[in-house]
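#structure-requests
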Amino acid sequence: MFTGPWESRLCQGAEEGAGVRSISDLSVGIEEGDLPARQDNESYADYAYRVLCDELIVLDIKPGAPLNDEQISRRLGVGRTPIREAMKRLESDHLVVAYPRRGTFAAGVDITDLAEISEIRQLLEPAAAARAARMASARTRQELKQFAQEIERLLGGRQSQRNLMRLDMRVHRSIYRATGSRHLEDVLVRYDNLATRIWSLVLEKLPPVSEHIAQHVELLERIADGDADAAAQLTTRHVTDFENLIRGVL
């Protein structure tokens, strides 16, 4: 079951050894601001990547901030070699930038990238939703139905914009995982990360996004029901609405 509301570290891609493979593994609840625990089947490099990726996405690590591997090693309780391995992955994800003799820094957030990121997501996200509707296992379909019910319950209360953003991230990663395609999941996580960084940059300027998050309820239900066409159509609307939401405050 989806046991945690949203404070999960959700940067897991589809790489071998990432440790998290089932839908329900995406919801490890922790208190906001705390470091998540390293999972039993997770390498130190994967753990460092997961924590740093999340902090970079939600801008806990500010764009342009230096990343010192010795300081990060002490903070996470992880050796410097796994930290360097994590940094290489983050660089390939375009979340950090490394400069010779200067060091590694959090990548900037360029609002002008929104159109290109949205175009790619509008092509791939509907395809992922449709594939999930076709390929998801019986267990995954049940978990997605439970997740839809959880979202309805959570939206019935008063939630912060930041929590709603994390909930949106959980939904997207659940759908990517449900496709059963490691390659598609990997690509979509990366672009969703970049889109969420832009979201984080303008988060305080946005109107309440509860209605945007509520769109996921029907989407998850259609995927669980195996309705690929409806899932693709709902996803296209959701991605388009996201771009319009961001542009409305730029």
